[in-house]
Amino acid sequence: MSSSDSAKESRAQDRPRRLRTMTFADQELRLISALVVLLAIGLFLALPFVLSIGAVVFLPLVAAIVLTILLSPLADKLAGWGLPNFLASLLSIVVLMAVLALALSVVLAPAISLYDEVPQMIAQVGQHFSDIKMSIAWLSQLNEQITAIVGTESGQQVVLAGPSILEQLAFATPTVLLEVLLTLLLAFFMIESRTRLRRRLLLDRKAVDSSLKAARVLREVQDRVAAYILTVGMINVGVGVVVALGAWLMGMDAPVMWGGLAALLNFLPYVGPIVMIALLALFGLGTADNMIVGMIPAAAYLGLHTVEANVVTPSVLGARFTMNPVMILLALSYFSWIWGVAGALLSVPLLLTLTALVDHLGKPNLVGFLFGEPLFANNILDLSSED
């Protein structure tokens, strides 16, 4: 027997053993992947309770991380102009505070003046609905007849008086101010230490490939979140300008306030525009004598938002920032459940951050995993035959 024949026979005898070894390895990998999936599901379900209980600590920390990702490019630009790192980091925080103060002053000052007119608007809206009710009075008569036939139990209702809005604000203001101050301090120190963090990520890795991967992940997360928020911010400013001009043309009070409110609420996907439509409908119905005329501001904003959300924003952002609407709603509801309005504002930046990390670390094949496929595509074992 020749040496080539003996080698082929040896490989043929070793093949079943190799297949069994690879099968055991695949089963072990699948078991580990199943444990990872179960741990991820448990973490996903338990994390809201931990984060909500420790909101005083975790909310400023997460908000500071998002602000660090957002403001680091600005600090890098200022440092590139020759400013010291400490001063560049401080100026980036100052710029953020100035923008927020300007936005809040544009919205809050006129809103406070209009707050006294809210009861009158509500009464006007009630009058409109009373007119509608009078036009369909036969429904009320039918309801009374059904009530007389079925019968109702009479009794007194006790209504407990709760704290007023001003009392709630008075109790909440110290906590909010403390969390805002803690967030800004954490963001400042994180921005100021960004160069040391980058150096540690790049130089403390033993392998060059891991250092390059860490640098790419850090750069991708920073660029994606910062570019998204900057682009969406410019679009929202444009929406605010259009709304302010429209409110001015319609003769509405405080058109700048309506523009600023539209720009701020547009940062909340889906929920913000709905709130804006409700506010415009309340204001329109509360100030107009005719319901059709009163619904014109809300209808005009609905048309503007339809064009902006379906034409302008997708064409400007492009495929790079396109996210599944289901994922956006899940993130919005998930973080709103944990942290309320602050969580809703942080939901999209956090979703972008997680998406960038998953793109680099690998997307899990959860649906295929249920049908026996590997959890990650790069874990597929090559079982091809050998000569």
- Secondary structure class reads mainly alpha
Largest sheet: none
Residue fraction in strands: under 5%
Q: What is the N-to-C order of secondary-structure elements (H for helix, E for strand)?
A: HHHHHHHHHHHHHHH
The geometry reads as globular
Mean pLDDT: 75
Name the poorly predicted regions.
Answer: 152-161, 164-170, 379-387
Count helical runs.
Answer: 15
The count of β-strands is 0
Radius of gyration: 30 Å
Termini distance? 18 Å
How many independent structural domains?
1
Q: Percent range for helical residues? A: over 70%
Quick summary:
This protein is mainly alpha-helical. Helices cover 81% and strands 0% of the residues.
Topology:
Blueprint (H helix, E strand, L loop, with lengths): L2 H51 L1 H26 L4 H31 L2 H18 L1 H14 L14 H28 L1 H10 L4 H42 L5 H11 L5 H17 L3 H4 L1 H22 L7 H15 L1 H21 L4 H5 L17
Walk me through the structure.
- The chain is built from 15 helices and no strands.
- The chain has helices at residues 3-53, 55-80, 85-115, 118-135, 137-150, 165-192, 194-203, 208-249, 255-265, 271-287, 291-294, 296-317, 325-339, 341-361, 366-370.
- Helices cover 81% and strands 0% of the residues.
- Residues 152-161, 164-170 and 379-387 have low confidence and may be disordered.
- The chain has one domain (25-117, 173-379).
- With 387 residues, it is mainly α.
